[in-house]
């Protein structure tokens, strides 16, 4: 192990590279030791490399001799170029974190998931990295490793075992994990993501092995900045954070919600190409109101009821402030699976000061709007010709409703206050109508239209006569036979979206939707369903999941150096996704493109989001790249193994 001065990593490895004051390094010949170090020890994806790893000639042997330093070409100052950790500016009475960056070799290289290649280390690498004898003689390709892992994973019958095998691999060999996930995305998405990730969160305490992500609990109040600095990676570009209060449709899972940020960020890399080392999963633990967990001896979180009110707001504020202080203005914070009240409050509070995105409100809205735009091919007319009814008026329901109203307003030039009248929502107390306005939470009020009260969903369907029915209630089995039949009596091609996750909370199954509509429904769901054969015809359900949107959306923000999210970016992301549905997909009845093309889809979404950001003056990476799709593709992380010198 060789310790090197960490300052050599201060240069900006972000994909927004060329706007960085460090971009000159790329073209300059670097001190050889830095070059060697960067090759051996860092995760370099295409387009994100500022240190030119090919130009150096120094060997690892030479690196043993001393510390590497970066020389600032302008000032000539050596070392401590960016005092990211505050060590140089700290006075003697202030504690600092003793960071060390080391080059792994031998046994520790095999135990380092970022660089381990297992049996794929070639003879030369085994020789020069002290691996001889630590591996059996055979050398295999990454392709063979993928084949073997898939074989092993398929041998597990229980989805949770498959999940654990995938998490194990991520901890053992990160590149192989991403290669596996990318090459088998349709098969493995339901394992690392919904529905299996939901079960994993429920049982997180008992399957807990090695900690993943960063845990920030009430105990860390007053020192969140220090906790952030404990994370080993410094160039973070995206954080996914949850407080575990509403995990999918499964409710309050407290600290065990960590499975969600970990899973979402795996998709940021696999689907959107953001480097794994730039992703940081965080769970904020303010307690849980889940009695079962509080009494579970394997529970991993704080054993107390949830903090709320001022105590909650103060912790979150300290967190948001520390994040910006540590990572700068362009760090993307994605809120995930917060309960309704906090989700809306946080988005409103930090939307103007931070680069924040709520996946459940905004990501879901964008993906559903995309599905509706393409569903018009089957149902006919434009969005303005349709009437929308929701079951569920929380984050997803009101988020989608608003984006639909905005899109119709954009298409027709009718003010959004008017277009909202095309959209109706039912919550646990029935149809949201003006007579209930006083008692409604603020995010439901725009949807309180003039109508007599209606309590049952089926009655609301018969009265409102929607062409589109959307389930965002988190409650399974709520689109009953009666409800689907009522939709089918009203419409030749009823559009039915059962969005709640995981599968157990889906408002109805694909089979139910197709059977009860006699094969006429245009159906999509939040969690995946198998194809259904109904009267000799195969129906392929779509997966209306925000996983189509957030990876490309986030990439677009990051690659353009965007500093704030704007609703128009959600609209262009939806349009970009809808534009990726091919005639061949339509011929199969699909309203979403298959996930197997997701990297290409994400590049198109990223390009449109970035273009909109430039247009709105919110992008800081200047000048804008000429071809944004190509640029997005060039920024994407590749999981292929690198050769070690
Ligand atoms: O995670 C998913 O599959 C979609 C999502 O954001 C949620 O249901 O909260
Ligand atoms: Mg979510």
TrEMBL record:
Divalent metal cations. Prefers magnesium or manganese. It catalyses: oxaloacetate + H(+) = pyruvate + CO2; (S)-malate + NADP(+) = pyruvate + CO2 + NADPH. This is Malic enzyme. SUPFAM superfamilies: Aminoacid dehydrogenase-like, N-terminal domain (SSF53223), NAD(P)-binding Rossmann-fold domains (SSF51735). Residues 361-614 form the Malic enzyme NAD-binding domain. Belongs to the malic enzymes family. One of its GO terms (molecular function) is malate dehydrogenase (decarboxylating) (NADP+) activity. CDD domains: NAD_bind_1_malic_enz. One of its GO terms (biological process) is malate metabolic process. (S)-malate binds at residues 246, 501, 545. The active site is at 193 (proton donor), 264 (proton acceptor). It holds the Pfam family malic.
């Amino acid at each position: 192990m060789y310790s090197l001065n960490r300052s050599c990593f201060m240069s900006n490895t972000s994909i927004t590279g060329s706007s960085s004051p460090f971009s000159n390094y790329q073209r300059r010949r670097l001190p050889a030791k830095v070059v060697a170090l960067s090759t051996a020890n860092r995760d370099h994806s295409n387009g994100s490399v500022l240190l030119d790893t090919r130009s150096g000639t120094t060997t690892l042997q030479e690196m043993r001799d001393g510390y590497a330093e970066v020389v600032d070409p302008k000032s000539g100052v050596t070392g401590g170029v960016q005092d990211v950790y505050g060590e140089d500016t700290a006075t003697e009475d202030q504690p600092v974190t003793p960071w060390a960056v080391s080059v792994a070799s031998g046994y520790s290289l095999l135990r380092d998931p970022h660089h381990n290649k297992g049996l794929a280390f070639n003879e030369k690498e085994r020789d020069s990295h002290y691996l001889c004898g630590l591996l059996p003689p055979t050398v295999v390709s990454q392709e063979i490793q993928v084949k073997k892992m898939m074989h092993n994973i398929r041998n597990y019958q229980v989805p949770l075992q498959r999940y654990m095998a995938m998490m194990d691999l991520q901890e053992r060999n990160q590149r192989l994990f991403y290669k596996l996930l990318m090459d088998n995305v349709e098969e493995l998405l339901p394992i690392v993501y919904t529905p299996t990730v939901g079960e994993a969160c429920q049982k997180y305490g008992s399957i807990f092995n090695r900690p993943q992500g960063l845990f920030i609990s009430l105990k860390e109040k007053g020192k969140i900045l220090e906790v952030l600095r404990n994370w080993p990676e410094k160039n973070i570009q995206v954080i996914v954070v949850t407080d575990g209060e509403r995990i999918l449709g499964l409710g309050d899972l407290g600290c065990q919600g960590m499975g969600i940020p970990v899973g979402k960020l795996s998709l940021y890399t696999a689907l959107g190409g953001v480097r794994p080392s730039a992703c940081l999963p965080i769970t904020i633990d303010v307690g849980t109101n889940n009695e079962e967990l509080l009494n579970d001896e394997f529970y991993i979180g704080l054993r107390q009821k949830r903090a709320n009110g001022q105590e909650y707001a103060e912790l979150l504020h300290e967190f948001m402030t520390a994040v910006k202080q540590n990572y700068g203005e362009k760090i993307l914070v994605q809120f995930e699976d917060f309960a309704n009240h906090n989700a809306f409050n946080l988005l409103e509070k930090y939307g103007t000061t931070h680069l924040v995105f709520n996946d459940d409100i905004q990501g879901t809205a964008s993906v559903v709007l995309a599905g509706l735009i393409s569903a018009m091919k089957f149902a006919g007319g434009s969005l303005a010709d349709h009437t929308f009814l929701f079951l569920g008026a929380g984050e997803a329901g009101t988020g989608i409703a608003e984006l639909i109203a905005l899109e119709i307003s954009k298409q027709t030039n009718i003010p959004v206050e008017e277009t909202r009248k095309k959209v109706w929502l039912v919550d646990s107390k029935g149809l949201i109508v003006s007579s209930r306005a006083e008692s409604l939470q603020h995010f439901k009020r725009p949807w309180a239209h003039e109508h007599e009260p209606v309590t049952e969903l089926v009655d609301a369907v018969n009265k409102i006569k929607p062409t589109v029915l959307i389930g965002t209630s988190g409650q399974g089995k709520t689109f009953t036979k009666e409800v689907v039949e009522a939709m089918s009596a009203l419409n030749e091609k009823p559009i039915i979206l059962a969005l709640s996750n995981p599968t157990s909370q889906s408002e109805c199954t694909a089979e139910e939707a197709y059977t009860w509509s006699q094969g006429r429904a245009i159906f999509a769901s939040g969690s995946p369903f198998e194809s259904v054969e109904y009267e000799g015809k195969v129906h392929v359900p779509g997966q209306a999941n925000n996983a189509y949107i957030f990876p490309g959306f986030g990439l677009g923000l990051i690659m353009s150096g965007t500093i704030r999210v704007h609703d128009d970016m959600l609209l262009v992301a939806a349009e970009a996704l809808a534009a990726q549905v091919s005639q061949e997909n339509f011929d199969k009845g699909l309203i979403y493109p298959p996930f197997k093309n997701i990297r290409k889809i994400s590049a198109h979404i990223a390009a449109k989001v970035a273009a909109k950001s430039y247009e709105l003056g919110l992008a800081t990476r200047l000048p804008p790249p000429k071809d944004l799709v190509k640029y997005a593709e060039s920024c994407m992380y590749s999981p292929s193994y690198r050769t070690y010198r």
